[in-house]
Amino acid sequence: MSPRVPITPIDAAEITTYDHETDVLIIGYGCAGAASALDAVEAGSDVILLERQSGGGGSSALSGGEVYLGGGTPIQEACGFDDTAEAMEKFLLAALGPGADEEKVGLYSRDSRAHYQWLVDHDVPFKPSLWDSPTWVPPTDDGLMWMGENSYPFNEIAEPAPRGHRVTSDGFGGKVLMAALSEAVDKTSAAVHTDTTALRLIVEDGRVVGVVARHFNDTVAYRARRGVIITTGGFADNKDMLAQHAPRLVGLGVNSDGGDDGRGIVMAQAVGAAVKNMAGAQVGISLVPGMMVRGMIVDSVGQRFINEDVYPGLVGVAALNKHNLKVWVILDEQAYEEVPEDERWGVQPHFVAETLAELELEIGMPEGALQTTVGEYNRFAAEGQDPYFHKSSRWLRPLQSPFAAIDVRRGMAPPEYGDGGTGGGGAEVFSTGGLWTTVDGHVLDLDGGPIPGLFAAGRATSGLHSQGYISGTSLGDGTFFGRRAGVAASAGQ
What we know:
Blueprint: E1 10-11, E2 20-27, H1 31-42, E3 47-50, E4 66-68, H2 74-78, H3 85-95, H4 102-110, H5 112-121, E5 130-131, E6 144-145, H6 154-157, E7 164-166, H7 174-186, E8 191-193, E9 196-204, E10 207-215, E11 218-230, H8 239-245, E12 253-254, H9 263-269, E13 275-276, E14 281-285, H10 289-294, E15 296-299, H11 312-323, E16 327-332, H12 333-338, E17 351-353, H13 356-363, H14 369-381, E18 403-407, E19 427-431, E20 434-435, E21 442-444, E22 450-456, H15 473-490
Helix pairs in contact: 1-7, 1-15, 3-4, 13-14
């Protein structure tokens, strides 16, 4: 953080008077903050929500609007899928990477159906229809989508079922989710203080009891009688923190509202909080999944490195960590034409050639590289097999001339973004590491003990994640554990 904005906590003895007092003080008004407020009020607490922007929403409002839910929700059942909490848990533990929080994943999976109902009870809409092909965000308002559960190796680890519950929306659904949650907050006694930036925590005898904030040019002190909850988001907009914890993300486009500066994380660290998985990230690689799955993705020497029907965020992680995003989507004319125009997001091939030898030359790959890769792919695809990476036979077909290549590093822009592109680097990213917390949102110190009076939820925490990511686990994690933090803080634990 900037040296001009101190981060060290303030001793309560230095505060002569508080401008506001409440039971539970929540810092940040995205989906985690809204959920915390709703359940804290339900638990009988007076609540104040602080938001540095002029209104709530944050990065949650800009998201695609997928919430990862399962275990047999009404939407799954209406679409003809049986699911269990056990299968959901197995998939998430495998997909979210080594070190995923087993306790959180287990609890989240077991309580997923109930959490779905909580969302519906707060007027979050879901349509009982399935979008059945790989995509980032469907061009329809279908309410259920696959998140790679039916791809290798996950289809051998757990019984597959689609669990991406997409908020009913024209375009990205995050704005609809936050509109519903904000309307629910408005109906409660919670007070929302906008244009208010938290600066430093206030500590009394080792307990967090409030925060000093800035409201325009005024310094304002808040006292929390029961607890402070940090829901300020991640740190992908803070280049210094990225360089320190996740240097591979430096220079890439950021998927946020511009305010994921990590200040909430650092404020908590200043009172002794521990962090986890700070190198973790979602890597929204700049490609159209429907094109990739019908063709292949290769590195700079023309070799495949993953099955193309897996969740595209996991493709992005592999492409960034192993190949620095120097990867290409290779496809033929039929594969490109099979992707409906409204799913192409304006992406067109950067190189087209009648032969693979010509395409290699145009791209700058070693002679024979693509010819060997495509030759092996076609040999087995003709039999509906992929012994190298086990892509589903649904997507296997020998590729034929003319061939095309798409340079992922040139970026693309979803229709929701207009013509803005990714901001450079071939991916849009956000951080998934953060504060170490319990299932009830208690922020833990370096010894693994709870810091009295301090709670957190959402992307300010490490949440469910380790090094992997699945769409919907941010909104799902943030709302679910935000609710639990609101209840725990209300109890003054």
